[in-house]
Fold each of these.
Amino acid sequence: MLKVPDHQVAGHRQARDGKPSPLIDDAGRFYKPLQDDDRGSKEVAFYSSFSSNTRVPDHVRRLFPVFHGTQLIEASDGSGLRPHLVLEDVVSSRSHPSVMDIKIGSRTWYPEASEDYIQRCFKKDRETSSLSLGFRISGLQIYGNEESRLWKPENKLVQNLSAADVKVVLKKFVSSNFPDDPNSDPDCSFAASVYGGSTGILAQLLELKAWFEDQTTYHLNSCSVLMVYEKEKMLKGERSDAEVKLIDFAHVTEGKGIIDHNFLGGLCSVIKFISEILTSPDECTTKVCLQDSDKNTNDSENCTTEGM
Amino acid sequence: MLKVPDHQVAGHRQARDGKPSPLIDDAGRFYKPLQDDDRGSKEVAFYSSFSSNTRVPDHVRRLFPVFHGTQLIEASDGSGLRPHLVLEDVVSSRSHPSVMDIKIGSRTWYPEASEDYIQRCFKKDRETSSLSLGFRISGLQIYGNEESRLWKPENKLVQNLSAADVKVVLKKFVSSNFPDDPNSDPDCSFAASVYGGSTGILAQLLELKAWFEDQTTYHLNSCSVLMVYEKEKMLKGERSDAEVKLIDFAHVTEGKGIIDHNFLGGLCSVIKFISEILTSPDECTTKVCLQDSDKNTNDSENCTTEGM
């Protein structure tokens, strides 16, 4: 039985403008309708190449969704049979996932694209945080303490954040208090276990970085890093299930012997933000918690950001 | 006594369009005329800030020219007194320096620039190798075996090289045979001693990279990495004097808590090219030396590229 998933956070993976939505089954597979024009075939070409590329080391391969080929299935909008990419379901198989979709790169266009596409991306990169930060948050959902309370700001609101605001959002992502409460500063309770540690998000991003410093096969234009974990497990004291997955390969081009310096630079910027949260717990009180001086003392105690 | 230096390789540091040229003295100082508009004052502001910034570690500081303040001196074109930056003379104090000026970054413009400047740079970055490689060679001079024979291609000819051509030029830079000889493939004789080793160019670039992964104070837009060494010393079996220096800070902007992901990405691309020359000596024969099959055997023996 296929159904429309609950937890899609980034814009173009939702059903809109009459386009069919992705589907999931109960066996952990995610069915992504092939995009029109050549984007769909480009994404299939990337997954086919990547999944059969024996030079990709296992610790890098696990940062990409598993590819199960393509399948002709009934589209979610009732428009009939349509080819779908069949992928590992990274998000929807979880019960209450907190998810952040970060589009990497200060530039989302690439020389091989059409002039029209280049100009549109050039404009959007300048209008969002892509140009300044080297990435933009494309989508976001964070659960609060109670499972049912979900903070899911509109994508437009998070695409053009300042450096200071991005840091706050990255702190909210790993805090126990409810992210949408203006009277409550992020306590960073889960920073050490979600971002830090040998299997945490930072460690996974550093493995990705090392690969991008070396690989010259793929340029992952306009691709996203998805960060996922379940706060519920943290609250129960369970081991962190934090995961990094790269998604959206409709604009991948050949590396032709050159590293993807655009992706690498943006990735290093994300890494720097997350590293700072882990290594500068003081900032939790000095910058973010300035509003309420009484609370600073407690918050600084809660800032369990001892680093990796 | 001030004089016009012999060894300026990049375009805008030469006298042209009626602009005065830089000057040198015999005490190892380089006098750079302050550029008109706000570029001159921006460069002074950068050198003042950087030279007094106590957070810059010594191993990074030595990759920048020493700053000796500004001085009002007679311009080289006889146009009268003009303020000059007084800097360490990196190149001209050497007798026969081989020099490569690499402008780092796939983007030479920045959000704070004027729309006119942005559009001009955007166009030039696309027309040169900056966009694809993450850098462009801005100027180049390589000495041959005999001191007097100098290969100094026009800057326009080296700004838009393909990945394969950049690799050839980087090999020519560290080869004993004359770089302009079409019948002679680069032998990479000096690769290990100039690029490799604990004090070689790659080691210096890696120190720079580590700093750029962390520092969020300066964005070095449109800045160059200069690589310099004297082939004569290599031929005499002396220790390599290979040096990396960053130059041209007329477009530096404040980092505002964000790493310079554009510079970092481009720098990583340069590092990858140089690493490959050090770690893949075979390629010297398979790709570059294909033209003359008889010579391949000899060349592969000469490829002393054992890595660091």
Amino acid sequence: MAEGSLAALIDSLRRLPGIGAKSAQRLAFHLLQHDREGAQRLAQALQAASTSVRHCERCHTFTEAPVCDICLDPQRDARLLCVVESPADRAALERTGSYRGLYFVLMGRISPLDGLGARDIGVGELLQRAGDGVTEEVIVATNFTAEGEATAHVIGEALKARGLKVTRLARGVPIGSELEYVDLGTIAHALSDRR
Amino acid sequence: MAEGSLAALIDSLRRLPGIGAKSAQRLAFHLLQHDREGAQRLAQALQAASTSVRHCERCHTFTEAPVCDICLDPQRDARLLCVVESPADRAALERTGSYRGLYFVLMGRISPLDGLGARDIGVGELLQRAGDGVTEEVIVATNFTAEGEATAHVIGEALKARGLKVTRLARGVPIGSELEYVDLGTIAHALSDRR
Ligand SMILES: [Zn+2]
Ligand SMILES: [Zn+2]
């Protein structure tokens, strides 16, 4: 129904995960009808982020510097390495204020249905990172979902085979839930009860 | 949790209607992790559309030219003017293949809850457009929702006061539904049964 640049905009929006054809059309109409400034702001934010955001060389999270703030912080306990599925999960753990070690951010979980294997989520980089000779314990904090548990199993076996101590967040975290939605107290408790 | 350009991107996405904080974060991570090309494509589409898309001078729909294709088409019956709430509704009517008149696109409906009055949706422009001396009948095809019906009433009264014949799509369209989701046969039937 739309020609030229409007059709191109609807098409680009439709390619976003969770946005169907109708939502894409509604978003495009909303931006053009009520918020052209928002459209321009979003365009610039997309441009800036997609050119300047990269992965931290040490923990693989998103950062604009070669190494992220946490990895550069000399106050953190470098003997502890906590593995999470995403920057959002890292942020949830940070907000508890009860973890002072370092992180490794997998950028996903092993998911055969989505065609994501150990290589796709950076397990090789994790093994290299954990084998730095300083890391003593790896806390596996992948989500307590089926895929998160399977990922934890694969990672745990590989790390143990390299002589590292591997722990998992305590089951205080409700089964079936995703870490970023869990309340901070529960996460803090699970962290101190890790096994 | 995110700094600089990543935070700005999440914030811009969060301002879109129907996109909450978590969805914005997920969309941003998805684009940066899996689809930077898509992010750049979307940025360019937003930029292009927000600078080049304007309103048709005759029917008020979105177009990149001063006057849209349908308004320029000499084959259309200029005695008939169909009023719809959105370009999507116009597209739904076009797809039936059973309407050969012209359109006026309101860009919304009267909605006190959303702070949208007759002026905001372009009723003044509609009255001017319908008073061109050529238009004989105005078919009011606003949605069969409470707000669409109220809008139809306001428009209908104003048009009748100017001596124009005003019809409404027949009630073949299911009550409570939005036009763009209705099957084409129902719309075609409602069009021929207009009262
Ligand atoms: Zn880092
Ligand atoms: Zn037009």
